[in-house]
Amino acid sequence: MTAVWEGRKVVMCVGTGGVGKTTASAAIGLAAAASGLRTLVMTIDPARRLANALGLAEFGNVEREIAADLVTPLGIELRAPLWAMMPDVKRTFDELIVRVAPDRERREKIFQNRFYQQFSTALVGSLEYASVEKLYEVYTSGRYDLVVLDTPPSQNATDFLEAPGKILDFLEQETLQWLLKPYAVAGKLSFKLLDLGNSFVLRTLGKMAGGDTITELAEFILGFQGMYEGFRERSRDVRALLSSEELAFVLVTSTQPNQVAAVQTLREGLHREGMHVRSVVVNRVRRDPFADVRRSALFERIGELVTDPQRRQAIEMAFTEEGMLAELGVTVLDRVKQKVGPTPIIELPELPLDAHDLDSLVALHSAFLPGGGP
Fold it and tell me: Is beta strand 64-65 parallel, antiparallel or unpaired with respect to 82-85?
């Protein structure tokens, strides 16, 4: 098996919520660093599961290195550094404004605006936008051999692809631009005309929403005038990266029956955008260790070891249920394989507990190494 990062500089893990994208991302990062690649793992998981799994007390918008001596006792040698970070949506937007704003005065007006403060944290798509914006920043920095991105949960694989365009659509929509018409002078827009008394329309809206509110909204939209090209340029750059040969999409799913349709939807969505899945990770694959043993022989042996009838019955029921769950998981796994065709499948075993520490990642990371397996 070829490593998912072979010939790539970015690995992007996509999938619906709860399938283990964060776990897969961390395991890929650990395997890549063990293979000698300077690796950064980025997550947007607010539960900070990645931080816990990698042995970090906390992390944020600045990358934190995972100490090599944390994994050495677990039998893993990091041949290259491994870092982790969680992009901060607000700070990522602030850094973008610093980059595209023409001057300090414009930048400060935007930062102080209440609508911007909400826009940069609560707008639909802001999380996706921040993740791809930060991804592009660290990718172009050249500091890493590989960047692994754990994307937001999504039923639509193109949500994060479309995020930059959605931000522009919001800023340029006709309703918002209509608010600026009272401030147009000879085809230009001026902050000096932001006076609620100058416009009958704004006076009317001011009575309904509050004069200060309308003025702040107009100031917010006006503040971005002349900066749209900066957003468009970054949108084009991000789009080019996402469709380039330097990025590999890894689709993460699980053996839950409802995931089969989700896998197909996500894969088709990426394919329509001209982006192809490098591999599919099926998480929490359950195997019955007694699948090749006749139940009658197994239960006979249990009967020899356990004399109490109730206890023996409970144990037999547990083995039966375990076998049924494993059989269901294998059935779903086979259906996923049929849906994805020749796309390589990587199986991650179900662990006794959720992957919440380095021990768990060590148990999984070898599945991503060439010739490896869980």
Answer: antiparallel
